[in-house]
């Protein structure tokens, strides 16, 4: 498992730190849907609900203290600028994260080029992936998470938000908010099956199958 820092403008191939070696080809390439990333990874909806409850509490507090409806409305309105700033910053971060992230599936590996300020490419050889899981969303997008075989680990903070939520001790690299997730999951399943020389197994949640032994070294970035 390798990672390499890179500048996007100098990529020889979009999303990849170097040209692919002979015999390797791109199967699929894509990026997260920024709004879905904002909702699921950055919890924009929960922030909106928090400020809505805060505004209601202010209204109830003023009215309970004998204030007028006008006073209660004024007390609630002060939360709007704070809510707008918070939601705007989270939406901007989600947009930048999605814009700078490129997920690449080849016939040998998965490459995750991530990072808003400093781009990092994580190489996940298919032979080092023990299991994969799919979490679907109502809009057809989804998160495809990977359980790594053996001692391979990538720090959760290095991956975030491209990691399965709450799996901190054993982080699972995740293709977050992927549009048309079922089609992408099928492509990943085909690639994993071909790499292992086995019949295709459908990808579904959770990613928790027993690890298979690694058969090849990590590809250099």
Could you walk me through the main structural features you see in this protein, from its secondary elements to its overall organization?
- Helix 1 (34-40) packs across helix 4 and helix 2 (44-64) packs antiparallel against helix 3.
- This protein has 2 domains: 2-32 and 101-196, Pleckstrin-homology domain (PH domain)/Phosphotyrosine-binding domain (PTB) (PH-domain like, Roll), CATH 2.30.29; 39-95.
- The chain has a 5-stranded antiparallel β-sheet with strand order 1-5-4-3-2. It has a 3-stranded antiparallel β-sheet with strand order 6-7-8.
- The protein has 221 residues and is of the alpha+beta class.
- The chain has 6 helices and 8 strands, in the order ββααααβββββαβα.
Residue share in helix: 25-40%
Q: What's the structural domain tally?
A: 2
By CATH's scheme, which homologous superfamily of the largest domain applies? Pleckstrin-homology domain (PH domain)/Phosphotyrosine-binding domain (PTB)
Supply Rg. 21 Å
The strand line-up of the biggest sheet is 1-5-4-3-2
Beta strands, count? 8
Give the strand content: 15-25%
**pLDDT under 50 segments (min length 5)?**
206-221
Task: Give the CATH architecture of the largest domain.
Answer: Roll
């Amino acid at each position: 498992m390798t990672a390499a820092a890179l500048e996007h403008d100098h990529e020889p191939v979009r999303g990849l730190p170097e040209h692919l070696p002979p015999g390797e080809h791109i199967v699929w390439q894509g990026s997260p849907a920024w709004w879905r990333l904002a909702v699921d990874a950055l919890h924009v909806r929960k922030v909106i609900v928090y400020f809505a409850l805060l505004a209601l509490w202010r209204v109830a507090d003023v009215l309970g203290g004998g204030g007028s409806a006008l006073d209660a409305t004024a007390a609630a309105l002060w939360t709007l600028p704070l809510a707008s700033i918070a939601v705007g910053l989270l939406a901007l971060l989600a947009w930048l994260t999605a814009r700078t992230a490129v997920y690449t599936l080849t016939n040998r590996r998965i490459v995750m080029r991530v990072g808003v300020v400093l781009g990092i490419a994580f190489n996940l050889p298919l032979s080092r992936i023990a299991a994969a899981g799919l979490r679907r969303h109502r809009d057809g997008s989804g998160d495809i998470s990977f359980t790594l075989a053996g001692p391979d680990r990538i720090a959760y903070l290095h991956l975030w938000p491209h990691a399965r939520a709450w799996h901190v001790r054993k982080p699972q690299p995740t293709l977050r908010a992927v549009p048309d997730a079922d089609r992408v999951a099928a492509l990943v399943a085909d690639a994993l099956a071909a790499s292992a020389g086995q019949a295709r197994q459908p990808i579904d949640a959770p990613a928790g199958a027993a690890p298979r032994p690694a058969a090849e070294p990590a590809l250099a970035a």
